[in-house]
Every structure is written in C-alpha cells, then in structure tokens.
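Subject: Sanity check before I submit

Could someone independently write out the structure tokens for this chain? I want to compare against mine line by line before I put it in a report. The sequence has 365 residues.
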Amino acid sequence: METVDTVVIGAGVVGLACARALALQGREVLVLEAENAVGTGTSARNSEVIHAGLDYAPGSLKAQLCVRGKPLLYAYLRERGLAHQQCGKLIVATAPEQLPDLARIHANAAACGMPDTQIISAQQAVALEPHLQCVGALSSPTTGIVDSHGLMLSLQGDLENVGGTVVLNTPFDRADIAADGIVVSTGGAQPMQLRARRLVNCAGLYAQALAARMQGFPAAHVPPTHYAKGNYFSLSSKAPFSQLIYPIPEAAGWGVHLTLDLGGQARFGPDVQWVDDLNYDVDPARGASFYDSIRRFWPALPDGSLQPSYSGIRPKIQAPGEKSKDFWIAGPQAHGVPGVVQLFGVESPGLTSCLAIGEHVARLV
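---
Independent answer below. Compare away.
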C-alpha cells in the first residue's frame, strides 16, 4: 500500500488553497477530486466577489479569515497577473427605516478590522451611480471581483510546482482511522487504497456525508447539512453601474444584489431557496421576485430584461430560520482525532478567505 503524508479531499478553491499551504510546508500532498476538473462545484457557481468582511460576527472565523484573506488574495492576484478588479461596492438603504442598518454594518466592519468603509448620503451615492435610487449607502472601496477559475488553476500550479498532485475522477469512498495512520479508499474507474498521516476534508457540499464514512471519527463532531440554493439571473443588456450594488442583508445572505463580471456584464442574485437535493436548474418563474427586489434600488430596470443564468448551492450548517453560523473548521484539538481536519459550512466568504483558510488549516495539522 502506498503511503503519502497528507490527503486533501476536494479540489475546489478552498481545497486547493489548503493543499498548496500544506505542500509549501514541505509535505507530500495528494488531492482527491471526484469530478473530471478542478472547481466544478460551489467554487464555480458563485458571484466571484472578493468580500471586504463587513457583516460577520467580530471574532468569528468568517471575520478573521476574510479580513486576513482579502489582502493576501489581492497580493497573490497582482503577483501572478490574474484577472481581477477592485471595483468597490455600495450597500444601499432604500427606505428610511434601513438607515440604522447602514450604521450597524459600518460599526461592525470596524469591529472586524475593516475601517475603510464610509457612510455616504443619497446624493453622494447617486453622484457615483446616477441610475441608483436610495436614501443612503455604505461605500466599501476594497470589495472586488475575480476570475475564480483562473485563481484555481494558479493554485493548482503552485501545488504541483512543489511536488503536490491533483488526482481527478477519483471519488473518496471511505477512510479507516487507526493509531498507525489513516487508510483512505477511493472509488472511480481505478479504485485504490493508500495510507496517510493526515486527512483534510474540503469536500464542500459533500463534506458531512464523507465525514460519516470515516470510521473512527465521532459522529458528534459532524454538524447537520442544509442546502441553500441561490439562483442568478443575467441582464440582456449592459448594466449602467460600475460598482457592485447590495441591499441590506437578509437572514441567510445579502439578498438579490447586482454583481459584475470582469467583462462588465451584470448578474443578479443569489436568492435563497432551501432545497433537499443538488439540482442546479433555474426556474424562470423566480424572475418575477427579482424584478421587485432590483427595482427598489434600480427603478428603471426594463421589463423582460432578465434571463435565467445559473445557480449555486451554499453548504449551510444552520437550518432555515436560524441565524447564520460560522465556518466549522476543526482539527485534532477540537475533536480529538489525530491527523484529521474537517471543514464544514465553508460558504461565502470562502473564496475571499481561501489563502487564509489554507494558512489556518496548515497550523491545525
């Protein structure tokens, strides 16, 4: 049986960043990916936003890793010449009763270590974005957008340049955890077994299901799984905005907001649709509620201008109606199983935080 120092399950942006960080420590790292390419799951189905870290609980992993990860990511993108844009974001209040929410987010951002946000008047916001309607806004100048696929290919390249390997079409089947190491079994066309000293579960939507197939890992340290589907609609014409436009956040996310891709094309979403299975179809009928939401900050949105685009599914730990929960990133100090690190509920800002998450996981092992 072959032996490897570390096995990472999942070649999304977080899995690749973790594998890269571990390999840069001098470890032999093997990444198992069930699909035929890297980053085909949650990493490929999001807004591609570089978040500033405004509305997370101060002291939480989400806040810490986002605030640490954002400058790391910008520096990495600049160093590698990867496509991105620091376009900025406006969080808008569209009714007077929402103005206290802007003040709350502004204060929360400062408490999280992000002092560069600024509350601006409706007149200042409209001067920046003439087609906007609001009663006030919070400006976040360090928010941006990134080509997530280009980022993942670069992380994979870094990993491979220091001797790491990504094995595609190789789904994780089970692991047997013992005192002398972890025996990992895979499926696919060429099943194999190998012994590892460390196992890092970055399987995203499937992380809990795979953790349940790790013999010797306590079930009490595996949280429940909840899927929050987010549907996106695209604009048939070019949007008259240069920044991202976000409404006041909702319980399960930021609501239907306007993001831009690197070509300037607008997309709206995600909404929140709690689902039981992984189905990525977008129901065109959901577009009706999008018009209502968008017209609160862009009244001139033309009729018939939205078309179904794509969807993503967030790996939530909290159930519908519950408050948002923090990343669940647990190493041996938390669960008592040597060599194992579990990552559960890594949704937004996972992309922004990926390099910081890699650092964090490398410390845990």
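---
OP: Matches mine. For the report I'm noting this point. Residues 10 and 203 are 5 Å apart (CA to CA).
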